[in-house]
Amino acid sequence: MSLGPVMLDVEGTALSPADRDLLTEPAVGGVILFSRNYESPRQIAELIAEIRNLRSPALLVAVDHEGGRVQRFRDGFTAIPPMQKLGHEYDQDPDRARHLARTVGWLVGSELRSVGIDLGFAPCVDLDWGVSEIIGDRSFHRQPDVVAILAAAYARGLQSAGMAAVAKHFPGHGAVVADSHLKLPIDRRDYGNILDDMRPYERMVENNIVAGVMLAHVVYKNVDEMPAGFSKYWIEEELRRRIGFGGAVFCDDLSMKATVPYGGMVRRSNRALRAGCDMILICNDRPAAEEAVEALRDYSNPLSLVRLARLRGMGKSLRETLLSSDAWQQATRELDHWLERPSLELDA
């Protein structure tokens, strides 16, 4: 059985009979885990192993684990600072910031790989325009070139740990106030202004260090009437053709309020897939997920299967081996030392 186009969530810290039934449906291709699924490193490793053993090829297992506010696994994992802190470091010492970004990426990737996670949806490469309710300190910086530099370093750290980078939220979520979890944001900037937001993606694609991109649930009113995740223009014309991205495209969670005006879950799912998404997320709405999975039972896109296969995690250290390694101990000491340092304020 090949991987389907739907990534969904599960109920708790172990699979329920309903979870097992749903995860064996042909349209399912992945599972995204949340804080409610986590108790300890041992428990999450057992849950992931249970998910993997359900079918062959195994489902992709993902988590949002950027650092700061968006870190689903806490106890037993290194606390990662928000990416904005790396941007502040860059303003003081660019070389040090690049090194720290790579170190942080390696720590995130190696700890997630040690329990069996394939990919963490990171880095967030939205620009810090100073207005977004949901992005805020998740952004590295306001300047697109700085974001590109730090995101590239973070991605190289992930790669060295055996994990692919998935950049988000294309073409850019940082210039709108509204949170797409709650309502549909409208970005009224002209195309020329949005080019800055896309520059980090261009640099990462040029350097072949990003294997996945997640779309924003934002309407860019002066460019296209559809939200990016439902837009052939943003996916096919901008991301694929102009930027040259050949990896996997993810549609962000279709249960977000921003997507409600675009039909029921089956219609939303079909819109995203027809626009060019390789995988769609449906979270925290089991009836809607079941409806979409049933409707997509016969869906197949061979090119998507190739792109998604490239996201599988590579290599895996036992957690005990990782935590006793010189590399992990050095990385955590360095991170602790950096976070304990007094902040230096630049002159205005």
Report on the structure:
This protein has 348 residues and is an alpha/beta fold. The protein has a domain at 81-278 and 297-313: Glycoside hydrolase, family 3, N-terminal domain (TIM Barrel, Alpha-Beta Barrel), CATH 3.20.20.300. Helix content is 41%, strand content 12%. It is built from 12 helices and 12 strands. The strands form 3 sheets. The chain has an 8-stranded parallel β-sheet. Helix 3 packs antiparallel against helix 4 (94-115) and helix 5 (144-160) packs parallel to helix 6. The protein starts with 5 loop residues before the first strand and ends in an 8-residue tail after the last helix. The model has no long low-confidence stretch (mean pLDDT 95).
Put the structure in a nutshell.
With 348 residues, the protein is of the alpha/beta class.
Summary keywords:
348 residues; TIM Barrel; two-stranded antiparallel ribbon; globular
Radius of gyration: 19 Å
Query: Helix/strand/pairing class, anyone?
Result: alpha/beta
Order of helices and strands: EHEHEEEHHEHEEHEEHEHEHHHH
Mean pLDDT over the full residue set? 95
Helix content class? 40-55%
**Number of E-state strands:** 12
Strand order of the largest sheet: 6-3-2-1-12-11-9-7
CATH topology of the domain at 81-278 and 297-313: TIM Barrel
Helix and strand arrangement:
Elements: E1 6-8, H1 17-23, E2 28-33, H2 41-52, E3 60-63, E4 65-67, E5 70-71, H3 83-92, H4 94-115, E6 119-120, H5 144-160, E7 166-170, E8 186-187, H6 191-206, E9 212-215, E10 219-220, H7 232-242, E11 248-251, H8 265-275, E12 279-282, H9 286-295, H10 302-309, H11 319-323, H12 326-340
Parallel strand pairs: 1-2, 1-12, 2-3, 3-6, 7-9, 8-10, 9-11, 11-12
Antiparallel strand pairs: 4-5
Helix pairs in contact: 3-4, 4-5, 4-12, 5-6
